[in-house]
């Protein structure tokens, strides 16, 4: 009961969330999560730099995703235990150091280690999003989370474009060095500008970690949302991790710059996020998740039916991105209302499951591309989407969202 009383007092005392603060949090979320995706358009370049085959260098993407899942469990729950502004600023500083380490990596082994650390510390995005949900209040939660998620998605979008172009026309190390400098600046700005948010629990770190399993067991909606998003994200990451290798082959014969530019196609997903957030505030979150899964499957089907087509590839990317982001925003809107005293921990469980799916998708995507070429990649993505759709529909049939 003590923890429940503390969170209620904390929510009553939460500072007002203005547009400037929302914009700052959206930018911070985007900047941090971008660190996960810089490597994807550059995998071909990294293979040449480190004299490695595509399967080996794909572990840069795999370990970044797995590091994120690890960081979600180890770091993100601390948002319930410690003052969030200071925690966010400190984690951004650590992320800057990890990015500088990647920029200076002399070999593939060092690059893999740095990528793991980048993934762990990029979870600062998942301290920012629950903080926004906490400050927003029930009536605005979907809208505010949708706006912050739009910033996060913009970071994903621009990360691929910027890294692809910089790596093609300058040097891949410049990508990580610039990202490290941006993270360092963000640490200072956030420490000065974010509102102070006190802890919502006095649980020890060990008990916080132990409580994650209890939250997973207690909330069927959390289990379903995590499983659905993990499957969707597995297909999504498998696609983006192998796209650069696909584009290097005929009939495209393109490099990292084009792989990065195709990331701009995902702008539709960024626009969709706040719209889905507003719709989620009105109800029907489960239906929005279902529609998102259907869109993702349709996107991969379009790619499969139009091999070697730029138009088919672009339409497929739009549908896949909109589907994934719509389901993500709707799932987050429904899990944040489950237990106000444990929002950071609930978000931790959800995102850890999701990024475990992403890590698995990276690994399976590399194997699928090696064995079956592009057919294996889009087939894997479509299969993941269909599995997610089945989990959502069957789960909702047993228990209402």
Automatic annotation (TrEMBL):
UniProt keyword annotation of Transmembrane helix present: yes
Q: Which CDD domains match?
A: MFS_NepI_like
Which stretches make up the Major facilitator superfamily (MFS) profile domain? 18-399
Please name the Pfam families in this protein's record.
MFS_1 (PF07690)
Q: Which UniProt keywords apply?
A: Membrane, Transmembrane, Transmembrane helix
- The answer to keyword Transmembrane helix applying to this record is yes
Signal sequence: where? Answer: none
Residue intervals passing through the bilayer: 21-38, 58-79, 86-105, 111-132, 144-169, 175-194, 225-245, 257-276, 288-305, 311-329, 349-370, 376-395
State one molecular function term (GO).
Answer: transmembrane transporter activity
PANTHER family listed in its UniProt record = MAJOR FACILITATOR SUPERFAMILY (MFS) PROFILE DOMAIN-CONTAINING PROTEIN, TRANSPORTER SCO4007-RELATED
> Which protein are we looking at?
Arabinose efflux permease family protein
State the organism named in the record.
Solidesulfovibrio magneticus str. Maddingley MBC34
Taxonomy-wise, where does this protein's organism fall, top ranks first? Answer: Bacteria, Pseudomonadati, Thermodesulfobacteriota, Desulfovibrionia, Desulfovibrionales
